[in-house]
Design brief:
Oligomer: single chain
Structural class: mainly alpha
Number of strands: 0
Shape: globular
Largest sheet: none
Helix content: over 70%
Amino acid sequence: MIAAIVAALFYGVASVMQAIAVRAASHRAPDAASGGVDPGLVVRMLHQWRFVASVCLDALGFLAQLIALQRLPLFVVQAFVASNLAVTAVVASWLIGVKLSWREWAAVIGVVAGVGLLGSTAGAEGAAQVGAVFKLALIVAVAGLAVVGLAAAKLNEPFRTTALGITAGFGFGVLSIAARVLDGFAPLQLARDPAAYAIAAAGIISFMFYATALEGGSVTVATAAVVLAETIPPAIIGVIFLGDQTRPGLAGVAWAGFFIAVASAVMLARFGEAHHTEDVAMADAVAHRQANAGPAAAELLFWWPVDLQLFIDVPETTGVS
């Protein structure tokens, strides 16, 4: 459980840093409705130290998630990982004084309560074994998601960001399932295991689609879509195919905790409900504040994505409610 918590912390911080890197590296016009997937986006982001640091955090988060997957059921680990939205909200409130409404604080508490219930009721990971057909099916699923993601990138907003986020979430879900069914971690075992190739492929396409979603939309809208898609399907698959279960007599409590945690995390997507045009207007207001806030405060505001600055009080002349 400690490993699952660490994974959520790392993922939450990394997603914010990646949002900053995406906005800085994007060549997409702010008013562009669509534009497909930009293969050079990740390459350009590699020149930014914030993105490189976020990748390191993601890697550490994945290692922590992998450790958790070896000890806990999928539905528990995925719910813990989903709590990274609560991490983002709390850190934003702490660092730059973002004002959370009582609903946001209730959602944060809901995430904590939900994962707490899960942690207290979870049994051991399932003992069911899967064969080569199951693992090959994961690779086929990744290929299908690649096609779906390319089509989603051609959609107009507001559907584009949500569709790309859901596709990326499904990919991250496949990655978690594949990590769970690995035969071992020795180099020779990994080279022979189809699940290892599913992990690599799912990680690449999911990250690319997630970055593309962030390029033209809100970090929290995209992340909320990812949360739903990467938690619920793997949880169901873990129970049906992998033998995941709770402690005897606590199944109802565990599933209640799961849905409380996931629903509460999605509630925090209110951070990203503003349209992209409003984000641009807010960026101008934040820039004005940076010029009058002093070096230390300006640096904090520069670090944080515009989406999370929507709750900072600004003059009504910006046109943002």
